[in-house]
Design a protein that fits this description.
- The chain has 348 residues and is an all-alpha fold.
- It has a domain at 237-348: Alpha Horseshoe (Serine Threonine Protein Phosphatase 5, Tetratricopeptide repeat), CATH 1.25.40.
- The chain has helices spanning 2-14, 18-32, 38-54, 58-67, 79-92, 96-109, 115-131, 135-151, 155-172, 177-191, 197-213, 217-228, 237-253, 257-273, 277-293, 297-314, 317-333, 337-347.
- Helix 1 (2-14) packs antiparallel against helix 2 (18-32).
- The longest helix is centred in the middle third of the chain and has 18 residues, at 155-172.
- It is elongated, with a radius of gyration of 27 Å.
- It comes from Grus americana.
- This is TTC24 protein.
- Pfam families: TPR_8.
Length: 348
């Protein structure tokens, strides 16, 4: 019966039904109390502990995982899995140094294990370093994981690890722009072989944001357009609105203001439909700036007014003074210096 419950629990975990998995593993552990084999009880305790960690209950998980440790002199053939799960429990409890200690032990046991397991451990270590606000160390863990995943022919996992590495590299400010663009380019080339459109779209968006931070706006715009083409239906509406907004901003930065207008208008309309007034205000502000650079100062003033109202509705003070400044500049261009001065005073 214990074997049947264990199989059922693993199947439930594979299907993402963590509550059912916990139920099966808990019952198996209770039954194992009457068994003569301490090894069987430890296996059951491990399964239950790992399932609790998976369900977001690391404290409870850790309690059972510690019960599953082999006693001295016993074989620790599955020690890598045990250390990994204890590390994951400590990570869930935000005790990052202890988590790293156990992930390090798991990595030592993982040398003979599959590449995916080794790389997974490095990813978790990277997450711990991010939790400890050490993005440079996190970046190195993610890069190491990406290399291992690539060698094991897992392009999806390699691309995700590279994406996380580039974000950490940008955050740390310890890497040269050329190193970061190299990682972004690798990630982009791997995207082409990823069959899942949702994952591919998310990665292209992250790549675009990375290029934007490096001020490489032509590649940013290209990546955002690739991500936009992969947005599918209702669940992606918020991402679609953000992508349209990012595309508009990228084209403003490229000084291709005529092209930017269409993206700003689409983004503002979609943010309006989604009820996101603050983001809509940002789009109106970006649209007004593009209009002013094209010499359409009346349209600029109108859009700065729309932006001002949206920022008032969402309580964004910084947005309000920026819109006021824009209105001041537009009024000067329209030959109304008195009104312009009034807007500048309001901005102050």
């Amino acid at each position: 019966e214990i074997e049947g419950l264990t199989r059922a629990g693993r199947w439930a975990l594979a299907l993402g039904d963590t509550r059912e998995a916990v139920r099966c593993f808990r019952k198996a552990l209770l039954l194992s109390g009457g068994a003569t084999s301490p090894w069987l009880r430890r296996v059951c305790a491990f399964n239950l502990g790992a399932a609790y960690v998976e369900t977001g209950k690391p404290k409870k998980g850790l309690e059972f995982l510690l019960q599953s440790q082999p006693s001295e002199g016993e074989s620790g053939e599955h020690s890598g899995d045990l250390y990994f799960n204890i590390g994951a429990a400590h990570e869930g409890l935000r005790d990052f140094p202890k988590a790293l200690e156990h992930f390090g032990k798991a990595a030592g046991h993982d040398r003979a294990a599959q590449a995916g397991s080794r790389a997974g451990t490095r990813v978790q270590m990277g997450c711990c370093y991010l939790g400890m606000r050490e993005p440079a160390r996190a970046a190195r863990c993610f890069l190491d994981a990406a290399r291992t995943y690539a060698a094991a022919a897992s392009p999806e996992a390699a691309a995700v690890a590279l994406s996380r590495a580039s974000g950490s590299m940008l955050q740390s400010r310890r890497f040269r722009a050329a190193e970061i663009t190299g990682v972004l380019a690798q990630c982009r080339s791997l995207c082409e072989s990823i069959p899942d459109p949702a994952l591919r779209g998310k990665l292209y968006n992250d790549i675009g944001l990375g290029y934007s931070q490096l001020h490489i706006f032509s590649l940013a715009a290209e990546s955002f357009e690739q991500a936009l083409a992969l947005c599918g239906g209702e669940p992606d509406r918020r991402r679609e609105a953000a992508l349209l907004q990012n595309l508009g901003a990228a084209h403003n930065a490229l000084r291709s203001f005529g092209t930017a207008l269409g993206w700003h208008r689409r983004a503002a309309a979609l943010h309006s439909a989604l009820g996101n007034r603050r983001a809509q205000g940002q789009c109106f502000s970006n649209l007004a700036y593009a209009c002013s650079r094209l010499g359409s100062h009346e349209a600029a003033a109108e859009n700065y007014l729309h932006a001002l109202q949206a920022f008032r509705d969402s309580g964004d003070m910084q947005g309000q003074w920026q819109a006021r400044e824009g209105l001041g500049a537009a009024c000067f261009h329209l030959g109304d210096p008195q009104k312009a001065v009034g807007h500048y005073k309001e901005a102050l």
